[in-house]
């Protein structure tokens, strides 16, 4: 049973690496003309920031049909063309983009507010920072 579990784990890890590598190839052939990774001047957003702020599934949906998704991403306009890629290529490039940023925006915990409501002698309430 243990050998089976190890085999499945290794197979899954190998498949994920292959998807990321295939996605990097798709990126270089189809996306790099407009998008950078880790900075640089480009027409489209840097994929490192896309990876930080978007779920992999949303990246894939946007890549497949940018015209139907750009408003939900908060963009006021869309210059990205619809790319003639296969479904697997969209999945691979989404895997690649997502792999660029292991820590995601939604993983960061916001600090809780340290404000308390204080009753004053005149029965008025005020919000004051907690010491």
UniProtKB/TrEMBL annotation:
A Pfam family hit: Cytochrom_C
InterPro entries cross-referenced by the UniProt entry:
Cyt_c-like_dom, Cyt_c-like_dom_sf, Cytochrome_c550/c551-like
Query: Is Heme tagged as a keyword?
Result: yes
Limits of the Cytochrome c domain:
18-101
Keywords (A to Z) from UniProt? Electron transport, Heme, Iron, Metal-binding, Transport
Which terms in the Gene Ontology molecular function aspect does this entry carry?
electron transfer activity; heme binding; metal ion binding
Name of the featured protein: Cytochrome C553 (Soluble cytochrome f)
Q: Which organism is it from?
A: hydrothermal vent metagenome
